[in-house]
Specification:
Layout: E1 2-5, H1 15-19, E2 24-26, E3 32-34, H2 44-53, E4 59-62
Antiparallel strand pairs: 1-4, 2-3
Bound molecules: iron/sulfur cluster (SF4).
Length: 63
């Protein structure tokens, strides 16, 4: 499973970081960084929840 972000749509509100902090991080420049774009199975449910919860629909998932 791969997760990606559209940086033009993301508003860096941190919702996904709160739901899956092992996978998403906000750097000092307030740009979302994806730490684990190839999502490990152990993080899959958290990442799916984060993708559904992004208020900007900025995250994409390839199963
Ligand atoms: S939840 Fe969406 S808008 Fe918020 S930081 Fe994550 S990708 Fe960006």
């Amino acid at each position: 499973m791969r997760v990606g972000v559209d940086p033009l749509v993301c508003e860096a509100n941190g919702v996904c970081v709160g739901l899956a902090p092992e996978v998403f991080d906000l750097g000092d420049d307030d740009e979302l960084e994806i730490l684990l774009p190839d999502v490990p199975e152990s993080e899959a449910d958290r990442v799916r929840h984060a993708v559904r919860s992004c208020p900007k629909a900025a995250l994409t998932l390839e199963e």
